[in-house]
Design brief:
Length: 424
């Protein structure tokens, strides 16, 4: 480093410990058990449907599709999203003022926090959380107030429902202060697979109305639910007025690398999200916006929304068969494509040579390391999605992503059967 220290990085990036994705992906790449079965990160092991892929290829041949899109998004995509979502709200969504296109849900959420959070403002986040929320809130100077979802008490011994991960509403009320500016909800939830019930959402919504708190409802898995799904913004006009709904075409159409997302909400909130987005990246990938527009225009007629639920649920059931064989309990997901498995019964060898950066982390990191080294299966330790104080709640769980080809799921099951000898 130069003597002046001017090359020193900002604290927001230099203080970060190694992120879970790098730890797991590096371990997966280095293990002698190759090829690894990677059920860690939530990317799809298969392509978007043909009608959307074809639309993307065609878009590349069009001059305008290879140039900047308007900062708020391509009119065709905004219209397609407004048309696709209006039936859920029982009114016509205005594509010009109530929808804004972003570079994935991630950049959409960053834009929302940049739009509303001032230094010292508080944002409530439930644990476990999608890790990106944290830095996105901290960048504009926000302070995070954490409220844990409580796992089912019998989680280590019995398979339970993701619905059994519950909110203590007294804890939530205590977390709300006059400085609370926003709350983040995620339903269907990553990594729990919980679909918040209408009653739970109403209680959260009522608290937000009482305290005038903006609700960022992260609904990126909104097409993957296996029980009735309630959208936060549809609960009442008072709640709708405060709600920014986050969507992801990457999640909807199996194209996480396309980086197309959006925010929907009241015009007087969306305009500031768009303003922040303009300053962050100006506009989002044009040809893929066009392809996503075709996706929303045709998905219903193609039967894609029912197909995606049917196929993903079948993958979930296929994969989870192995836990019955092994006698390991899991949390049955009501939505999304992640499953949390409780591995308290897995006895790790006392003298196992964990590297220091794993040995110093909670037990789920050791479990994940062991699965990679001994079984050749990569999965995610969920305490990464907790603060230190609450990490113990999830230290026996491991998260698997089932959005992989069926053969991959079968191979994973075969390998995981090797856990039998470590289970007591
Ligand atoms: C809960 C949740 N929100 C947002 C995202 C990010 O979505 P996108 O890929 O559209 O940025 C993810 C991705 O894993 C997620 O799990």
């Amino acid at each position: 480093m130069s003597g002046s220290g001017k090359l020193k990085p900002a604290a927001r990036v230099s203080g970060q410990k190694q992120d879970v994705w790098s730890i797991i992906n590096e371990a997966a790449a280095a293990t002698p058990k190759q090829p690894i079965v990677n059920m860690g990160q939530g990317f799809f092991g298969y392509n978007p449907p043909d009608f959307i892929l074809e639309a993307a290829k065609k878009a590349l041949d069009r001059v305008d599709c290879n140039q900047y899109s308007p900062t708020k998004g391509r009119p065709r995509l905004k219209r397609a999203i407004a048309d696709a979502y209006s039936p859920f709200c029982g009114r016509k969504i205005d594509p010009e003022t109530e929808v804004t296109i972003t570079t994935g849900a991630n950049e959409g959420m960053l834009s929302a926090f940049m739009a509303f959070v001032e230094p010292g403002d508080e944002v409530i986040v439930f644990e476990p959380f999608f890790d990106q929320y944290i830095s996105n809130i901290e960048m504009p100077g926000g302070t995070i107030k954490y409220v844990p979802l409580h796992p089912p008490e019998t989680g280590a011994t019995k398979t339970s429902s993701a619905a059994d991960w519950t909110i203590d509403f007294d804890e939530l009320e205590r977390a709300m202060t006059p400085r609370t500016k926003m709350i983040v909800i995620n339903t269907p939830h990553n990594p729990v697979g919980k679909v918040f019930s209408k009653e739970e959402l109403e209680k959260i919504g009522d608290l937000c109305v009482k305290n005038e708190v903006i609700i960022l409802s992260d609904e990126v898995y909104d097409r993957l639910y296996y029980v009735p799904f309630t959208r936060m913004s549809t609960l009442s006009p008072e709640i709708e007025r405060l709600t920014l709904t986050v969507g992801s075409a990457g999640k909807n159409f199996y194209a996480t690398g396309w980086r197309v997302g959006w925010l929907m909400g009241p015009a007087d909130l969306i305009k500031y999200v768009s303003a922040a987005h303009t300053r962050i990246c100006f506009s989002s990938v044009s040809p893929l916006q066009e392809a996503c527009a075709v996706g929303f225009e045709q998905a219903e007629a193609e039967g894609f929304w029912t197909q995606t639920v049917r196929e993903t649920k079948a993958k979930m059931d296929r994969f989870n068969e192995v836990w019955g064989e092994l006698g390991l309990p899991y949390s049955e997901p009501d939505g999304g494509y992640f499953v949390l498995v409780n591995m308290k019964k897995v006895k790790l060898p006392a003298d196992y040579p964990f590297p220091a950066h794993v040995a110093s982390r909670p037990r789920d990191f050791k479990l994940a390391w062991f699965l990679i080294q001994e079984m050749g299966v990569a999965a995610i330790p969920p305490t990464e999605f907790y603060t230190e104080g609450n990490a113990h709640l999830a230290e026996d769980y491991i998260r698997f992503a089932v959005c992989k080809e069926d053969e991959v799921l079968e191979e994973a099951k075969e390998r995981l059967r090797g856990l039998k000898k470590y289970i007591q």
